[in-house]
Amino acid sequence: MTNRLEIRNVSKRFSRKSGVVERGAEYIGLKAKNPVVRALDDVSLSVSQGEVVGIVGESGCGKSTLGRVVAGLLQASEGSVLFRGKRLDEMTDKDAEDARLQVQMIFQDPSSSLNPRQRVREIIGAAPLHHGLTTAWELDGYVSQQMERCGLDPSTSTRFPHQFSGGQRQRIGIARALAVQPDMLICDESVAALDVSIQAQILNLFLDLREHLDLTYMFISHDLSVVEHISDRVVVMYLGRVVEEAPVGELFSHPNHPYTRALLQGRPSLDPVQRLFSAIEGEIPSPLSPPTGCHFHPRCPFAMERCRTERPELRSVGAHHTSACHLND
Amino acid sequence: MTALLEIKGLKTEVVTSDGRVTLIDDVNLTLAAGEVMGLVGESGSGKSVTGLSIMGLVDNPAQVTGGQILFKGQDLRKLSERKIRSIRGNRVAMIFQDPMSTLNPVLRIDTQMMEAVHAHEAVSKQAARERARDALGMVGIPSPDERLSAYPHQFSGGMRQRVAIAIALLMSPDLIIADEPTTALDVTIQAQILSIVQKLAREKGTTLIWITHDLSVVAGLAEKLSVMYGGRIVEQGLTADLLRHPMHPYTNGLIASLPAHNKRGSRLKQINGTTPSVASMPSGCAFHPRCSSATQLCLSRPPLEPIDGRLLRCFHPVTAGAPL
């Protein structure tokens, strides 16, 4: 069976383009080249149909960039993204458009991802109308159906986004994404900005939709407990690289990579026993100048000489469990 | 033992010519020296306003309109602005969510920290600088001597928050009010800040009010917990008691909805409805439109009453052993 989505050795670099004068200055050595940020560094990953893959990591680890590359909002600098075994540039234009339409994204901040000057009906209805999934005659009914599915009252379809609460706005964002009938959703920190009691409602909505529509999810979050709850498989990223990948139960019971272990240890729990917080040392390095070898070595309590020079490869450490650490050798 | 801080019936309102909107009402807190209290609530619950009201930092058109704030037996509301200023930043300090709202971006760290020392104490420049350096060292900033002459933008987010905490610590205050200081930080950095604060509070016996929306952050940190909803405290007691057996339906729902309390992949127990806004607060118990055990009785406001070793504002407490 081909995977729903396969990411092969994808890298994404960002840098500022130099102007003509700057390029000249660079050429004769008067000016250093613009710094390059390696947001993604040789990332490979596959997602099968109906699976929920959680992507965890701290800020700057490249998890959002990965989501955007998959959703087609960014072009990968290297490597390829395969939809059902095919690259977009191998498909006909029509197929490529369909493939892209099948993958939709839900953002963190519902207020900045909705046009404040459009009514909910336009926000949800514009894309399906453009793509011919409904007609102008049937639009109202179509939008109502989308709204109901996401727990919104269809009679509010003529309102503007600011007239809704944060949780409802996120529902509008979800309804908009689902209106073009995708089979895969990329949720980038989609519950991070919501109140705790609202977070549970939205997570439940994701679970219900998965069941009814057989959706595949890429669930990007910094919140381990959310990822643990919703995912089948978890990918841990650090500074643009995948450091560990395992089925959810395995990862949370037998974390292998020192970074994953540090993340799990640092996570506050509801255990009411007064405990001492322990923490790994150090800061997250800047992606402009990542450490050599294993990116985690300056903060790792087990770092050896080899970690400073050689990049560890992802290696199997158990059933469907891979980790990139020299300690496993 | 006398309480370090005792708040009775605190009320803060927005007063305009069009009328009054109540932000917080009937807030009661008692903290002994060295105690750590978590103040938990969702957005709009009034937890930050409570912190700002204690500090005397609520701005027009909002104002504290009722109640007492007794700090070491002295009512802060009755003091002159001059007197308040000698206490604020000196005996009582505050840490905010965004460190850049504490730090001046165009001044070096040492200038800002020495200024804070000189505002309260006539010491030499040398002594002030040394105190600033020691404070930076205490919060775990490497090579504090050199970092003193850096600007705020040269620090990372986590380091900036450490500087803000160091400024709060400068005068060794008796009380620190921390308003969501780790919310904007990454998980590993949050753990670092929590461990520093926990250590300092224990070593120096500083009283701490930790304001947060995240129950799990204060679960390991605070001995006491106050849960706020709709501008009022709905439940208050020992952290262990509240987490083991929440009696208010809101606290109960909040804990039950956490992914950690639910089977992986199953539907989460959710609280229906949305958080009310201050402008349209439900009458009576503010939680009644979202509460499954609400009755006609809940249309009148329940009092905050002692029950089972805690304070509770509810007519229909959740019984022990009931499913979360």
Automatic annotation (TrEMBL), chain A:
GO terms for biological process: peptide transport; transmembrane transport. One of its GO terms (molecular function) is ATP hydrolysis activity. It is a peripheral membrane protein. Its main location: membrane. Pfam families: ABC_tran (PF00005), oligo_HPY (PF08352). CDD domains: ABC_NikE_OppD_transporters. Keywords: ATP-binding, Nucleotide-binding, Transport. The keyword Transferase does not apply. One of its GO terms (cellular component) is plasma membrane. It is found in: Cell inner membrane. Residues 5-264 form the ABC transporter domain. Belongs to the ABC transporter superfamily. NCBIfam families: oligo_HPY. This is Peptide/nickel transport system ATP-binding protein. The lineage of its organism: Bacteria, Pseudomonadati, Pseudomonadota, Alphaproteobacteria, Hyphomicrobiales.
TrEMBL record, chain B:
Its main location: membrane. It is a peripheral membrane protein. Gene3D superfamilies: P-loop containing nucleotide triphosphate hydrolases. It comes from the Bacteria. It holds the Pfam family oligo_HPY. The keyword Manganese does not apply. One of its GO terms (biological process) is transmembrane transport. Keywords: ATP-binding, Cell membrane, Membrane, Nucleotide-binding, Transport. Signal peptide: none annotated. Residues 5-255 form the ABC transporter domain. GO terms for molecular function: ATP binding; ATP hydrolysis activity. GO terms for cellular component: plasma membrane. PANTHER family: DIPEPTIDE TRANSPORT ATP-BINDING PROTEIN DPPD (PTHR43297:SF2), OLIGOPEPTIDE TRANSPORT ATP-BINDING PROTEIN APPD (PTHR43297). This is Peptide/nickel transport system ATP-binding protein.
